[in-house]
């Protein structure tokens, strides 16, 4: 079996190390929060609208590098991810990269923990990270 490794080389012939992506700055007073549902809400049939709010920053689609902007991520039944890595994209980390501020969500019956985390143009948490208090909803 043959393995190939790619190595970037500068114009002077020296190897170039890949630099980790830097976190995008966020104002210290930025806040992301739930407009709906409220902590302790009881949801019937599992389908509901999540409405997301943001203060002291703007909402912009992924890939938009404007200062003090980001897009929403809804964390479902999971803890905050590493703040130095891109936010995962799976059933527990829902991305709203088009700049949505509300979304229709469906959850199975039971108790669910929800939390919002703002991501930058590359789906990375800001510095400082902008996240909501977790809330709990019950689906019947």
Your description of this structure?
The protein is an all-beta fold and about 140 residues long. The protein has one domain: Immunoglobulin-like (Sandwich). It has no helices and nine strands. The strands form two sheets. Strands 2, 4, 5, 6, 8 and 9 form a six-stranded mixed β-sheet that branches. A three-stranded antiparallel β-sheet has the order 1-3-7, with no helix packed on it. The protein is elongated. This is ATPase. It comes from Massilia psychrophila. Keywords: Signal. InterPro entries: DUF4399.
CATH superfamily: Immunoglobulins
Unreliable spans: 1-19
Number of domains: 1
Tally of DSSP β-strands: 9
Write the layout of secondary structure elements.
Layout: E1 31-36, E2 42-43, E3 47-55, E4 58-59, E5 69-76, E6 93-95, E7 102-106, E8 110-119, E9 135-139
Parallel strand pairs: 2-9, 4-5
Antiparallel strand pairs: 1-3, 3-7, 5-6, 5-8, 8-9
Pfam families: DUF4399
Protein name: ATPase
Keywords: Signal
How is this structure best summarized?
This protein is mainly β and 140 residues long. It has no helices and 9 strands.
Name a few traits of the molecule:
DUF4399; 36% strand; mainly beta; six-stranded mixed beta sheet; Immunoglobulin-like; 9 strands; signal; three-stranded antiparallel beta sheet; disordered N terminus; 140 residues; ATPase
């Amino acid at each position: 079996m043959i393995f190939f490794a790619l190595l970037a080389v500068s114009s002077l012939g020296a190897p170039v190390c890949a630099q980790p992506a830097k976190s995008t700055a966020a104002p210290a007073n930025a806040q992301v929060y739930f407009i709906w549902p409220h902590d302790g809400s009881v949801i019937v049939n599992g389908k509901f609208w999540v409405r997301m709010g943001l203060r002291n920053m703007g909402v912009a689609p992924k890939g938009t590098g404007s200062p003090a902007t980001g897009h929403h991520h809804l964390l479902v039944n999971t803890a905050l991810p590493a703040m130095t890595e891109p936010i995962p994209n799976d059933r527990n980390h829902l991305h709203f990269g088009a700049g949505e501020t509300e979304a229709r969500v469906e959850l199975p019956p039971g108790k669910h923990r929800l939390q919002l985390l703002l991501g930058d143009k590359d789906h990375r948490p800001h510095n400082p990270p902008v996240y909501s208090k977790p809330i709990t909803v019950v689906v019947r």
